[in-house]
């Protein structure tokens, strides 16, 4: 009883060590109730985030990204070879005399095209912004951030392989 009376007389008991100041948090319960992607990207995180584990989502996105990157690499090589080969053949034909190029007309047409593109670029900016808003690609990425991250990583690996 003497201890209880002594404690009642004190307004604030001082902690004996720093460990008493901290609150113990059960991380598993906290993770179930406070999902990090909900706070960052909103409550509608999409059906993929709810059906599969994070590791499965990363593997699915990474596999799809690797396939896309690998195909992009192969098609890019073929396209570059075709364009470069065509340019080389035109240069050989020009040098051999099979093709005569009026370079003054080419320069005039290129300058005309530049002016036309500059005018169109100034007018196209509002159209591009409305197109981006219509597509809502950012909403998809926000809802499926883990799969999207896996896809980007896989795409880069596919380009490198």
TrEMBL record:
Sequence similarity: Belongs to the FUN14 family.
GO BP terms in the entry: autophagy of mitochondrion
Membrane topology category: Multi-pass membrane protein
UniProt-recorded name of the protein: FUN14 domain-containing protein 1
Ranges annotated as biased composition (Basic and acidic residues): 1-12
PANTHER family, sorted: FUN14 DOMAIN CONTAINING, FUN14 DOMAIN-CONTAINING PROTEIN 1
Principal place of residence: mitochondrion
Top-level lineage group: Eukaryota
Gene: fundc1
Region (Disordered): 1-20
InterPro entries documented for this protein: FUN14
Keyword Mitochondrion: yes
GO cellular component: mitochondrial outer membrane
Cellular localization per UniProt: Mitochondrion outer membrane
Keywords: Autophagy, Membrane, Mitochondrion, Mitochondrion outer membrane, Transmembrane, Transmembrane helix
